[in-house]
Amino acid sequence: EDEEVKQSLVGFMDKLAAARDKSWGWNMTSDPCKDKWLGVSCDSQLQAVRKIVLDELNLTGVLDIASVCKASSLSVLSLENNNVVGIISEEIGNCKRLTHLYLSGNQLSGGLPDSLKQLSNLKRFEISNNSFTGEVPDLSRISGLISFLVQDNQLSGQIPNLDFSNLIDFNVSNNNFSGPIPDVKGRFTADSFSGDPLLCGELVSNPCPPSAAPEASKKKSKKPSTKQFLIYSGYVLLGLIVVLLVALKLGSRKKPKEKKVVEVKKKGKVEASTSSSSNKTSATATSVTSKATEQKSEYSISSVESGVVMSSLVLLSSPTAQGLRFEDLLRAPAELLGKGKHGSLYKVMLYNGETTLAVKRIRDWSISSEDFKRRMKRLDQARHPNVLPSVAFYCSKQEKLLVYEYQSNGNLFKLLHGSQNGQAFDWGSRLNVAASVSEALAYMHEELYEDGIAHGNLKSTNILFNKDMDPCISEYGLMVLDNIGQSQPNSYKNNIDLGFKADNYSLGVILLELLTGKLVHNSGFDLAQWVQSVVREEWTVEVFDKALIMEGASEERMLNLLQIALKCINPNPYERPSINQVALMINTLKDEEDRSIISEA
Ligand SMILES: Nc1ncnc2c1ncn2[C@@H]1O[C@H](COP(=O)(O)OP(=O)(O)OP(=O)(O)O)[C@@H](O)[C@H]1O
User: How much is the CA Rg of the chain, to the nearest whole Å?
Assistant: First the structure.
């Protein structure tokens, strides 16, 4: 770990247990990951602290959230059944990757910070048996929450607005909650609400007074209306500022731009010199020459060649693209990374290597410019932390360019099949990838179903690792219809539903890759067929990657994941489960895995 993070962690432990056994580690002369501090688990790739589990250790000190959240990769914090005092401070919002917070059975107090609602990855929130007071912040936007246990505190206000169809554990009993019990979709019984005398509803056999609901909604509707008014005025103001800025920018750029087009026209072609040995294409300013013999930059556009004024680069909402101009892309040194059936991918270094982008050039995509633009803008709205967004795009009749941030940590294919510099890709990390990818895909499917935009080309080379080594699905929605047929031979190209079901199949194949460590296709070998035949012969355990067996990964959970994968690759698309179901099943498995690690620790 980073020295600074280490220092914060030691500070966190100093406050929890000033006098502690030396054998725990937790000091500046050792490393939390390499020297295995008590209760600490690390990410095998990043060597960064992922889990801190310090249950039942008689800790009597103060909880220092600010320090522990300096470990930015922290996903699990568990201090159950100690005697820790203090509060959950606002800095909890810095624990961006936190998925599991277990603080039940302590003497924590104070209100719950508003920043809790920023923890978009949170799955389990368990703080029962403490002395928390006040209202619970609005957690309705944390879509992945599956456990919410806050019983035996002094929380008040209305029951928080959660997605009850997603929750597996829920308990608000023995608090001071009041008002009507929401529709829990038949998933929870009266036990979850007992000991809150001010609650009303059928479940607790305490009918709500007829005035209660309208009163509550009256009160509610009054508050948001002022709030909404402020929000809307904010939007209008923001809109005006943006329009003004754009107008100013356009005004200031107009003249030089016209000049540039004339310049390009005069010079004829935009040229680039290509170094044949390294695939490197450099299209620097000096290479803009009129020599007809030289090759055109791979991603320079035909409209320039034919002298037609080019349409400009459309910048999307990512800050990376701010100020990016099409000319910048044309002039920057570029390296060809891959050339597929439908397009090529370039690594482009801008501003002396300050920014590195990946530019996908797609040819022959029979989509109208309008549809393409609409699609790109729609994709820009559907954002998920595990989906790589496009930062800009360019569209002409002949070709489309899509610009992404370059991810330097490689892709899932390389991690599984390439040389890993001796680093193991362990079962926990594989399950993590499966859970994150399936969740992200489920989110995108839900957001984009109405628009009929599936991924269309999901495979392990399209799962990239970002700087935190979190998996990110790339090239979502660049579906060239042929590709659906490629990943799933029986699909009917024009049917949107089948497009989504094809993603499902592709996800199943990725799960098989994670489980077997084998290539999807290899000189006549077909992974899906092979796994199905081995399972038919009842030699199921034979399919698993030897590295996983050696590591002692749970056979039961590997078998469960295999069952999920087999459901996804069902030859009948309509019998495949939805990605939402798949994500839920994988997350339950991951939770079991996390639980087992916590109980082992
Ligand atoms: N934004 C990115 N940052 C870094 N590497 C990327 C990025 N996007 C793609 N890559 C990598 O570049 C290589 C080439 O990508 P490309 O998309 O051309 O090929 P592919 O994924 O194998 O095939 P397809 O054309 O079917 O998508 C792949 O190894 C891919 O993982």
Answer: 27
Ligand 1 atom closest to 474 (CA): 8
Give the nearest ligand 1 atom to 411 CA: 31
Q: Find out whether the beta carbon of 338 lies less than 6 Å from any atom of ligand 1.
A: yes
**280 annotated binding-site participant:** no
Distance 446 CA to ligand 1 centre (A): 25
β-strands 280-282, 333-339 pairing: antiparallel
Ligand 1: distance of its center to the CA of 461 in Å?
6
DSSP 8-state class, residue 159: P
By the 8 A CB rule, do 126 and 139 touch? no
Please state the ipTM of this predicted complex. 0.98
Q: What is the number of the ligand 1 atom nearest to the C-alpha of 461?
A: 31
List 273's β-bridge partners, or say none.
Answer: 282
Strand-pair category, 343-350 with 355-363: antiparallel
Compute the C-alpha angle 424/425/430, nearest 5°.
Answer: 160
User: Is the distance from the beta carbon of residue 337 to the nearest atom of ligand 1 less than 6 Å?
Assistant: yes
Q: What is the mean pLDDT of the chain?
A: 79
Q: Is pLDDT above 90 for 86?
A: yes
pTM over the 0.90 mark: no
- Summarised one tens digit per residue, pLDDT across range 149-164 is 999 999 999 998 888 8
The residue with tokens 């994709």 is: 379
Please give the distance, rounded to the nearest whole angstrom, from the Cα atom of residue 314 to the centre of ligand 1: 22
pLDDT confidence tier of residue 146, bands split at 50, 70 and 90:
confident
CA-closest candidate to residue 444, choices 499, 369, 512: 499
Q: What is the C-alpha separation between 398 and 248, in angstroms, rounded?
A: 31
CB 177 within 8 A of CB 133: no
For a mutational test of ligand 1's pocket, the pick from 279, 318, 335, 337, i.e. the residue with the most ligand atoms closer than 8 A to its C-beta, is 337
Q: In what order do the strands lie in the sheet with 100-102?
A: 40-42, 49-53, 76-78, 100-102, 124-126, 147-149, 169-171
Distance of CA 558 from the midpoint of ligand 1 (Å): 29
Residue 355 token pair: 């920014």
Q: What number of other Cβ atoms are within 10 A of residue 238's Cβ? A: 10
Which ligand 1 atom sits closest to the C-alpha of 404? 1
* Ligand 1 within 6 A of CB of 346: no
β-pairing, 280-282 vs 273-275, is antiparallel
Closest listed residue to residue 520, CA positions, set 506, 533, 534:
506
Dihedral of CA 471/473/475/481: which sign? positive
Token pair listed for 185: 């979709």
Query: If you take atom 20 of ligand 1, which residue's CA is the nearest one?
Result: 461
Question: How many angstroms separate the CA atoms of 593 and 357, rounded?
Answer: 36
Taking CA atoms only, the protein residue closest to ligand 1 atom 19 is 338
Would you say 441 and 583 are in contact if contact means Cβ atoms under 8 Å apart?
A: yes
> How much of the chain exceeds pLDDT 70, in percent?
79
